[in-house]
């Protein structure tokens, strides 16, 4: 949206691997900070040069962000979080968030392409999967093939325990019967992580829910449709039908034990990566919006002065900045809580997602207000950013579901790490 902080000249696509080929985990703190700043600068430059120019066209035409996919592949960005033994760079949640934030600053739809790989099925396969799954899918993730996740069904959204997707035993494996909707990237992905019931599972409960990885070129898989949406129009949410799709034992990521809900718990814990990535994209989108509004305020004349001279609007900027930075601190805490190769903690991730969703929605709304009629115009970028952020408040668990989890956790005596709370002792 503006070109401040563009990456140093001379950095070309593919430079990422040369500059960040060694794991950040082995560096000193000072080196890590320096390299994170360099990573941010590199991705900012790429985003402004190669991602931003197509964002409006993709949004207007509801076109998949094909040129972004190719640019991100050329820059070898898809291998960021995958382990070095599979050809990736082995970086963590903090670095993933930096990339997602910088991409979302110019186009959330394009950032989602990386989110699908960094915080979607490949990460789950690497952490939870068997060698066969890892060897088959992780090199493809590094190469920039997309993956998708199928949890939601037409009658099972927030209440995942209502899902009907199930496995029917056949020989040494199963047949999958499922219908998943709102599958981000489902029409372009090579594989889908499908949450489903294992044989013996009790309908309407979490017992027996697990997940399998399905090759989307398998017989029985079909794209039943795509959703027409308010925003995030540069990436697609598909409806995927799985009619008797063969699933082998090695395709199982998490086994659903019909006696308990341990499989579901494992899967839900892993969603914390996705929640943090979602939060990072909100931060980036809102950052782009506030930067645009500030630039506009310095140029737009009203009467004898500029918008920037009006205290009422200065206060808006102050509130927007505080909201954004407060949310950023919550996200930083959640990301750092993941540690080396771990998963961000649940309560901190829910707080970060909720705060970043709400901050981004409000910041984008206020940025539109600051531009007046131009903010509402499709010739300016802010209304698109607002529509995109709106979708992020629903995906990866709605803001209401985050509130439920945060409230019940605190009432059950669970508190965020390192907080001097003294619950239950008046
Ligand atoms: C842009 C986008 C991308 C998505 N990508 C994916 C994807 O890749 N894979 C996938 O599986 N799904 C995806 N989803 C689906 C998303 O996860 C669901 O839309 C979400 O979980 C909500 O489910 P629902 O739409 O069925 O709403 P419902 O569950 O019907 O909820 C409707 C409303 O009621 C509220 N509500 C529900 N239960 C409660 C409760 N107990 N307490 C308080 N309020 C409640 C909700 O917050 C919501 O506001 C995506 C959605 C969007 C918008």
Bound molecules: flavin-adenine dinucleotide
Q: Please, what is the average pLDDT?
A: 93
Main-sheet strand order equals: 1-4-5-8
In N-to-C order, the SSE pattern is: HHHHHHHEEEEEEEEHEEHHHH
Q: How would you sum up the major sheet?
A: 4 strands, mixed
Explain what you see.
This protein has three domains: 15-145, Butyryl-Coa Dehydrogenase, subunit A, domain 1 (Orthogonal Bundle), CATH 1.10.540.10; 148-260, Butyryl-CoA Dehydrogenase, subunit A, domain 2 (Beta Barrel), CATH 2.40.110; 263-411, Butyryl-CoA Dehydrogenase, subunit A, domain 3. The protein contains twelve helices and ten strands. The chain has helices at 15-20, 29-61, 66-74, 93-104, 108-118, 121-128, 131-142, 262-299, 311-336, 346-371, 382-392, 399-411, and strands spanning 147-150, 166-170, 173-184, 191-197, 209-215, 221-226, 237-247, 252-254, 301-302, 305-306. The strands form three sheets. The chain has a four-stranded mixed beta sheet, covered by helices on one side. It has a four-stranded antiparallel beta sheet with strand order 2-3-7-6, with no helix packed on it. The longest helix has 38 residues, at 262-299. The protein binds flavin-adenine dinucleotide. Flavin-adenine dinucleotide binds next to strand 1, strand 3 and helix 12.
């Amino acid at each position: 949206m503006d070109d401040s902080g563009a990456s140093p000249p001379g950095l070309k696509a593919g430079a990422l691997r040369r500059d960040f080929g060694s794991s950040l985990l082995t560096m000193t703190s000072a080196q890590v900070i320096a390299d994170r700043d360099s990573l941010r600068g590199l991705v900012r430059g790429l985003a402004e040069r190669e991602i931003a120019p197509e964002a409006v066209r993709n949004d207007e035409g509801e076109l998949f962000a094909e040129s972004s996919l190719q640019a991100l592949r050329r820059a070898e960005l898809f291998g960021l979080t995958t382990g070095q033994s599979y050809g990736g760079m082995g970086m963590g949640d903090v670095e993933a968030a930096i990339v997602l934030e910088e991409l979302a600053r110019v186009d959330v739809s394009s950032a989602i392409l990386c989110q699908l790989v960094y915080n979607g099925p490949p990460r789950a396969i690497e952490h939870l999967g068997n060698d066969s799954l890892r060897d088959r899918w992780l090199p493809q993730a590094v190469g920039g093939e997309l993956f998708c996740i199928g949890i939601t069904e037409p009658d099972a959204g927030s209440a995942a325990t209502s899902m009907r997707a199930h496995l029917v035993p056949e020989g040494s494996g199963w047949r999958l019967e499922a219908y998943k909707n709102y599958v981000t990237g489902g029409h372009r992905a090579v594989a889908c992580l499908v949450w489903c019931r294992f044989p013996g599972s009790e309908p309407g409960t979490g017992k027996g829910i697990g997940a399998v990885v399905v090759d989307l070129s398998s017989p029985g898989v079909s794209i039943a449709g795509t959703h027409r949406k308010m925003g995030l129009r540069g990436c697609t949410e598909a409806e995927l039908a799985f009619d008797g799709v063969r699933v082998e034992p090695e395709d199982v990521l998490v086994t659903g034990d019909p006696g308990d809900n341990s499989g579901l718990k494992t899967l839900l814990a892993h969603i914390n990566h996705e929640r943090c990535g979602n939060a990072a994209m909100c931060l980036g989108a809102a950052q782009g919006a506030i930067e645009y509004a500030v630039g506009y305020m310095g140029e737009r004349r009203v009467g004898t002065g500029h918008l920037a001279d009006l205290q009422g609007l200065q206060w808006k900027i102050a509130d927007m900045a505080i909201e954004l930075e407060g949310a950023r601190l919550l996200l930083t805490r959640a990301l750092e809580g993941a540690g080396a190769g771990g998963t961000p903690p649940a309560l901190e991730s829910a707080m970060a997602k909720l705060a970043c969703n709400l901050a981004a929605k409000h910041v984008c709304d206020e940025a539109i207000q600051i531009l007046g009629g131009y903010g509402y115009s499709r010739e300016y970028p802010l209304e698109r950013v607002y529509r995109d952020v709106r979708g992020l408040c629903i995906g990866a668990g709605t803001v209401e579901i985050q509130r439920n989890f945060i409230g019940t956790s605190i009432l059950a005596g669970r508190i965020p790490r390192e907080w001097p709370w003294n619950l239950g002792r008046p």
